[in-house]
Design goal:
Length: 451
């Protein structure tokens, strides 16, 4: 009985991840076009982290980093795992997945007495051995792949890839009714109601607002002044906002809000060319290492513990969620020296006034970036490295490489030294996609100012 009471006191944890959202496409991020009333309301009881980063500019590696608390390149998960688009020089098709020896945050929290669940997108491998229920999650309702239709698959909407089938638990394939974003919130709420008396961890992994661009007619009507993809994206974002609101309402209804840590963030920068997302005032998009590819919106709430309606301005990393959630659940994070993330609680509570990270890294093949304090170096395969001072140039418009050659050399060397400790990539996309990434970056970067 004593253990049961102790377990009850542990706070619940909900991690909500959107997919391919634009940095500027939320009301709490300053958007005047999009409507996100529920998340704007949530921001008022949260800390908004203004310099939150993902560890990769695309969704698969970014999610692998979140799940493990480690730079995913350490175990060879450097690139998206997309069957049919991969180079034959590495693993392909269903052999690609989060390596089985890696412990996930689901494993960790389950060991600490939590009931764990994921709702939505997995993208950590299609084969049965990579399945969420074999990687620390008690319950799964979602799909194994990286994107799928928001509408049910049927004879009028035929399925394109086997890994996109909706699945409940392991091997029980079915299709939902209505719009998938709403359905994921409903299934999350059912789980919360069923497990309200014991600590739970929910990973609500939306595929919104990733392509395909599909929205409900009633949501589209809310944006008469927008057109094309931008209008559809606004409607998809509104649906996701509504889904988040449903979950918040459930927590309030069950008197769980004050004992639940909730995080809302995004998996990488918005792909402006494919979904008309806006990352302003940042340069770049999904798939590149400019700020628009790796800096994301981030809200965290723990009522009564974290000060509401405030901002935190030092850089944080989604890898920090693993040790932070572990500490909340009662683990000794000092014993987790192998992690690259840090426990954010002392920083968010202002007990530690320093920076959680002095140095951050990104890498994809021979592209890479390093941020040390407010200096950021970006290394390219097709042009000289660029250097930015993010303290006064978050748009990365003023390349300072020619003014500070010594700084370029030092950061270049530090990036290389970090890379020497990484595993070789276990798989890679076809080389041609590197060229497409460069084209996307050039199309959505701020005009460069050089002396």
């Amino acid at each position: 009985m004593g253990k049961w009471l102790i377990a009850q006191k542990k706070p619940n944890i909900i991690f909500i991840l959107s997919d391919d959202a634009g940095y500027a496409d939320f009301g709490f991020q300053g958007s005047k076009e999009f409507k996100t009333p529920r998340l704007d309301e949530f921001a008022k009881i949260s800390i908004r982290c203004t310099q939150a980063y993902v560890s990769a500019a695309v969704c698969g590696p970014s999610r692998a980093g979140f799940l493990t608390g480690m730079y995913q390149q350490c175990f060879g998960f450097e690139e998206n795992n997309v069957p049919g688009y991969m180079s034959l020089s590495g693993l392909t098709d269903d052999d690609m997945g989060l390596p089985l020896e890696q412990k996930t945050i689901g494993n960790q929290l389950k060991e600490l007495g939590y009931t764990t669940a994921i709702f939505g997108k997995w993208h950590m491998g299609n084969a049965d051995r990579f399945h969420p229920t074999k990687r620390g999650f008690d319950e799964f309702y979602g799909f194994r792949g990286g994107s799928r239709s928001f509408m049910p698959y049927d004879e009028t909407n035929p399925i394109d890839k086997d890994e996109n089938r909706l699945e409940q638990g392991f091997g029980n394939f079915l299709e939902h009714d209505g719009y998938l974003t709403d359905d994921l919130a409903d299934k999350t709420n059912q789980f919360i109601a069923q497990h309200k008396d014991r600590p739970f961890f929910v990973y609500l992994s939306f595929n919104a607002v990733h392509t395909p661009m599909q929205a409900m007619e009633e949501d589209l009507r809310q944006f008469p002044n927008l057109k094309g993809k931008r209008k559809t994206l606004a409607a998809m974002t509104l649906a996701m906002d509504r889904a988040c609101g449903k979950v918040l309402d459930q927590l309030k209804k069950l008197n769980l809000l004050d004992n639940t840590i909730i995080v809302f963030t995004n998996d990488n920068g918005g792909p402006s060319d494919t979904n008309s997302s806006i990352n302003s005032p940042l340069s770049g998009t999904k798939a590149n290492h400019l700020e628009g590819g790796v800096r994301v919106p981030f809200l965290i709430s723990w009522r009564g513990r974290l000060k509401e309606n405030t901002v935190y301005d030092y850089p944080i990393l989604l890898l920090d969620m693993y040790p932070t959630f572990s500490a909340i659940a009662g683990a000794k994070v000092d014993d987790m020296a192998h992690l690259d993330g840090v426990n954010l609680l002392p920083f968010l509570e202002r007990k530690n006034l320093g920076r959680p990270h002095n140095t951050l890294f990104w890498k994809k093949e021979n592209r890479g970036a390093i941020r040390e304090l407010d200096w950021k170096l970006i290394r390219y395969p097709d042009r000289p490295a660029e250097l930015y001072d993010l303290s006064n140039d978050i748009a990365e418009a003023h390349d300072l490489a020619s003014e500070y050659p010594d700084k370029v050399r030092v950061l270049y060397k530090k990036l290389f030294q970090w890379e020497l400790g990484l595993e070789r990539p276990k798989w890679q996309l076809l080389r041609k996609f590197e060229g497409k990434t460069a084209e996307r970056m050039d199309a959505f970067s701020a005009p460069k100012i050089r002396n």
